[in-house]
Amino acid sequence: MPSPNPQAMDFLLTRRSRPAKTLTTPAPDRDQLVPILIAAARSPDHGKLEPWRFIVLGRTALERLALAATGRAAALGLDEDQAAKARAAFADSPLCVVVVEVQKDSPKIPPLEQTYSAGAVCLALLNAALASGWGANWLSGWVAHDRAFGEQQLGLAPQERVAGFLHIGTETSAPPDRPRPDLDRITTWMDT
Ligand SMILES: Cc1cc2nc3c(=O)[nH]c(=O)nc-3n(C[C@H](O)[C@H](O)[C@H](O)COP(=O)(O)O)c2cc1C
């Protein structure tokens, strides 16, 4: 017989990100963040490779990265809007956890499965932050994919890349729900 956890199910059926722009301080302190990171690291991981790690960005680091993003946008010749968006994502964030995908050499586990695991860690971190009462949002943007930015500003190694910037803070407004997928359209039932 299944042993239901209705509270957990209710959370999963109603969970909703809070847009990063609407987050403010206070952000979780270290003691409050640790259980969220532990929950995130408790994610499916084929072969126990741990193909991910965290970088916690507090306000000083975020200000530095905001400046660096502006400089990098100019070097890349990006338009004002792209530069401003990347700058604001760091400058306005109360706290950001970078989930870094770390590809491990494995004769058995394909790289794609390690990527999936890193994505699972991002969602687990998001959900743990939301379940702890914080507002949270998983963002990427061009900075997530720019090699030079990742290596110079975040210290990424060649086998590493950003899986997600997880912004966490206090919500100022709850957004309306977004349209959710039509289950009939995305589900093929092979059960008869
Ligand atoms: C890998 C990934 C990157 C994302 N990057 C962005 C982004 O840069 N900007 C943005 O507005 N939303 C981005 N999103 C979407 C939001 O994180 C989120 O999916 C959306 O706000 C709805 O979230 P919810 O289903 O938790 O309510 C991204 C989602 C994923 C999975």
UniProtKB/TrEMBL annotation:
Residues the entry annotates as binding FMN: 15-17, 42, 46, 138-140
Nitroreductase domain location: 15-169
InterPro entries named among the record's database cross-references: NAD(P)H_nitroreductase, Nitroreductase, Nitroreductase-like, YdjA-like
Record carries keyword Plastid: no
PANTHER family tied to this protein: NAD(P)H NITROREDUCTASE YDJA-RELATED
Coiled coil: none
Keyword Metal-binding: no
Record lineage: Bacteria, Pseudomonadati, Pseudomonadota, Alphaproteobacteria, Rhodobacterales
Pfam families: Nitroreductase
Cofactor(s) named in the record: FMN
Region described as Disordered: spans on this chain: 1-28, 169-192
EC number: 1.-.-.-
Organism per entry: Salipiger marinus
Protein name: Putative NAD(P)H nitroreductase
GO molecular function: oxidoreductase activity
Family the UniProt entry places it in: Belongs to the nitroreductase family.
UniProt remark on cofactor binding: Binds 1 FMN per subunit.
Keyword entries, A-Z: Flavoprotein, FMN, NAD, NADP, Oxidoreductase
